[in-house]
Design a protein that fits this description.
It contains 5 helices and 9 strands, in the order E-H-H-H-E-E-E-H-E-H-E-E-E-E. The protein is an alpha+beta fold.
């Protein structure tokens, strides 16, 4: 796979992140619609209140992840003491090479080594996105059935959590142990 570097995104990365977002979230849409749905400007607006990281291979951005600890349109259900992943995507030709897991583990490692008061990393995943669910579970996330998703009325989401203070949290019937 070569050396993959994870770093904080900068404005020069925003067009790449827009393309990756569009190609992963809106993969079923025609290319001209994907290009209009998410632009570098949209990414710049998201970056104002979030943290965006990129995975870079051979000088090219091949993946990204966005996290936030503030209630906003991207993370409406974030609670005190947690950060929420609102997007994680990898270019289709780079998928299956561990880049998504590297992005998530980079966030966890950074949180564990920081002074940020955060106990949980939360991911709310549309239940039809089986690959994303497998990625969350492979990264140590555990499903929390007692917690609803972002838009329970319209889209069935599942919530996954990682205890960033000591590893994956055990959840049984919605009660943490």
């Amino acid at each position: 796979m070569g050396a993959i570097k994870v770093r904080v995104a900068n404005p020069a990365d925003y067009p790449d992140l827009a393309r990756i977002y569009a190609n992963t979230i809106f993969a079923g849409f025609p290319a001209h619609q994907r290009a209009a749905l998410v632009t570098g400007h949209h990414v710049a607006l998201a970056a104002e209140n979030t943290v965006l990281l990129v995975a870079e291979a051979f000088g090219t951005v091949v993946g990204g992840i966005g996290i936030s600890g503030h209630k906003n349109h991207l993370t409406p259900n974030v609670e005190d003491g947690e950060l929420q992943v609102f997007w994680c995507g990898v270019e289709p030709e780079w998928q299956g090479k561990g880049i998504g897991r590297l992005l998530i583990s980079s966030v966890i490692t950074s949180l564990r080594n920081s002074t940020i008061e955060c106990t949980r990393l939360v991911m709310q995943i549309l239940e039809t996105r089986h690959t994303a669910i497998r990625l969350a579970e492979a990264s140590g996330a555990v499903r929390n059935p007692s917690r609803g998703g972002m838009n329970e009325d319209a889209d069935p989401y599942q919530t996954f959590e990682i205890d960033v203070t000591s590893g994956a949290r055990k959840v049984n019937d919605g009660k943490a142990s």
